[in-house]
Write a structure and sequence with these properties.
This protein is mainly α. It has one domain: MFS general substrate transporter like domains (Growth Hormone, Chain: A). It has 16 helices and no strands. The protein has helices spanning about 1-20, 25-30, 35-70, 70-90, 95-110, 115-120, 125-155, 165-170, 175-195, 215-245, 250-275, 285-300, 305-335, 340-365, 375-390, 395-400. Helix 6 (about 115-120) runs antiparallel to helix 14 (about 340-365). The radius of gyration is 20 Å and the shape is globular. The protein starts with a helix and ends with a helix.
Amino acid sequence: APLAALLLSVSTVSAGYGIVLPILPLMLLAIHGPNAATEVARHTGLLTAVHAMALFLFAPVWGWLSDRRGRRVILVIGLVGFSVSLLLGSINPTMSAFYAERFFTGLFASAITPVASAVIADQGGSDAWRARRLAWVSMASISGFLIGPMLSGFLATLPTGSLAGAVMRRSYALPFLAVSILALAAALTVHIWVPRGTIASPSDKSQSHPTCEINMRTIWTLRAVGFVVAIGISAFEVGLALRGNQDLGMNPRQVALMFTVCSLVMFIVQAAVFSPMITPASTRWFIVPSLITMAAALALVTRMTAFTALLAVVAVVAASAGILFPILTYWVSLEGGKSRGAELGKQSAVSNLGQVLGSLAGGSLFASTIIAGAPFLLTSSFLAAAAVACWQLPRRLDHARATSP
């Protein structure tokens, strides 16, 4: 039950992010008018960046507080605040309200994933036990991102004659209200099921692996990889929504389907990577190939105009990012000790900073007339450079494990 409460919490805040992507350009068009494509692209990037900036600023703070005040209270505060914040933009659909909603949902959402990961990492247990449950946290996030676009894409195309359709046409409020209610339910389950202490590991404590002494150079290399991958996936998400709506003339359901495929592929590959068939220690060898694959797929996005071909490229990008994020979290979780919440908060913050820059790049560079597909090509080059820079990272991680006490 405690683990289920954690997974529900992570899934809920992810759904709160996912509901926005398919309909955000349409919400902005309703305010700025049908001929404001440049303004829509700019605000799409800025709004996504504001959310990610709040995640970047507050994730380490929540992690630090959870190390000192307890994990459960921080999770409850985050979920209740997230629930209330979601209603800001739907009650009063103005640009100021949209920016306030994106900031405050990011502020409170930043308390959830790193603290939930810290609850699991606190338990020690075997490498396999820790790795699989951290993967479940990542998969819960993906499931929320899967539900969010499906929900908003469906409601955005409801017939205007229906009551729900009329509400949706007026303010796009229904998906925000649904996730807000779900966040309150998640807060209640956390309060009831998650103990003040930690979740007991089912594995024998004697199997617990000693803390891995990863030096700070390697820790910051892992964070840098997370930063670059976050830039890539965030620019990809924003650029994909804009390209689908503006360049390819897709309707919200088609855009939502692309994000759905993205989430499903991430979910499947993470289940495979941290399955019993693959040892957690061997996941270090997946980092460089995944970076190379993601770079190549992003470079191909601008060449794909057919919906089916674009879906295939989306799947490749999703698979690469889906492999990388939980692997990086797993290796950082081996370090930290009593400050594990703060360390995982820093890892989350660095990734969120990458989301800020990626969102800005995805929105502001999308309309570039100098280089077609600039957001995709620029982030592709960053990922290729990261692959070269990380060539020796797997051996350094292996050395850290070999020299652990």
